[in-house]
Design brief:
alpha/beta, D-Maltodextrin-Binding Protein, domain 2, two-stranded parallel ribbon, binds alpha-D-glucopyranuronic acid
Length: 334
């Protein structure tokens, strides 16, 4: 069932050459098209919120601007998308924070286990310019990439063919991780064998037995149908993950002066809309997976906590990383 369309050289060339994002020909007037890359299905809440964003932005600009959403990883995996954004082939993308860590290690801070207590804490930090502002702007000049906000990934947990209740259960388990050094260290610390892989490859790898398990939130477990091939979801609660909206900095600079505030306001509404959808989508995902035969196991996480909590200290070494981490922890409520 699983689909993944690779971005071929031909497709990239076609996108690059498509009148720099303008639709319409001579005499037809032109519509500015912003291309948005997403690795989720059309049933995922990020697609639903982005689709509403696209429609309201189009209406608010009297049809002059259109955000065209390429879902299902059809333009490539997140690492590839970042390259397309650097070259202005893709204008907007939802990118996991783990991927930005590979360009600027300071992004590690928001990927270390236990940095965020919960979604509320995470969103407070994202909105707090004094904590996240410099980090989010850090790739603007060097890479043409600007983080303009975020969607939560919620709490991520391990799933496999059997329950994982302790580090002993993780021994020898090949667990897919996102391609980032922090994710590798995290699974090692939990006792497993991390295998980095792009999101769209995971279903087939689980099915083929190349992987024994993976880790994600309930919503991706459901929308990617991973529950079909790894039916036991154990609440290890190892990470509250985060996706960024990454914009091409030059695309934003090129927006007409009257359009930029409209874009910013509609995007701010989209973030709120996504957060509203998130809780509901999580419950629907649990119900759907359960009906499909999956089980959800609550476990005592103490043994994992003990191994995960010290990771921040060993992984965050620069002054900038330490300071963002400390400020983030200061605004926690626990
Ligand atoms: C989540 C997240 C994606 C990410 C994926 C992954 O679904 O929203 O942005 O790519 O996890 O594990 O790769």
């Amino acid at each position: 069932m699983h689909r993944r369309t690779l971005l071929t050289a031909g497709l990239a060339a076609a996108l690059a050459g498509s009148l720099a994002g303008c639709a319409g020909g001579p005499g037809t007037g032109s519509k500015r098209i912003l291309r948005l890359a997403l690795n989720q299905t059309e049933t995922h809440p990020s697609f639903l919120a982005l689709d509403a964003f696209s429609k309201s932005f189009e209406a608010a600009t009297d049809g002059e601007f259109l955000i065209d959403i390429f879902a299902n990883e059809v333009l490539g995996a997140q690492q590839e998308i970042l390259n397309l954004q650097r070259n202005n082939i893709v204008d907007l993308a939802i990118i996991s924070s783990t991927q930005l860590e590979n360009i600027n290690q300071d992004f590690r801070v928001f990927n270390v286990p236990r940095v965020f207590d919960d979604v509320d804490h995470q969103m407070r930090v994202v909105r707090d310019e004094s904590i996240s502002g410099d980090l989010f702007r850090s790739l603007q000049q060097s890479n043409n990439l600007l983080v303009i906000g975020a969607f939560t990934q919620g709490e991520r947990n391990i799933y496999a063919k059997r329950a994982v209740t302790s580090p002993d259960d993780m021994r020898g388990l090949k667990v897919r991780v996102q391609e980032s050094p922090v994710m590798l260290r995290m699974i090692e610390a939990m006792g497993g064998s991390p295998t980095p892989m792009a999101f769209g490859e995971v279903y087939t790898a689980l099915q083929a037995g190349v992987l024994d398990g993976a880790e994600n939130n309930e919503v991706s477990y459901w929308t990617q149908k991973h529950y079909e091939v790894a039916p036991v979801y154990s609440y290890t609660k190892h990470l509250v993950g985060i996706d960024y909206m990454v914009a091409s900095a030059s695309m934003l600079d090129d927006l007409p002066a009257e359009v930029r505030p409209i874009f910013d306001a509609e995007w701010a509404r989209c973030m709120e809309h996504f957060t509203e959808l998130w809780g509901q989508s999580t419950q629907e995902a649990i119900d759907g997976c359960t009906a499909g035969g999956a089980t959800f196991e609550e476990i005592d996480t103490a043994a994992f906590d003990e191994r995960l909590t010290p990771l921040a200290e060993s992984l965050l070494t620069s002054d900038v990383q330490k300071s963002i981490y400390e400020r983030t922890r200061e605004v926690s409520t626990s």
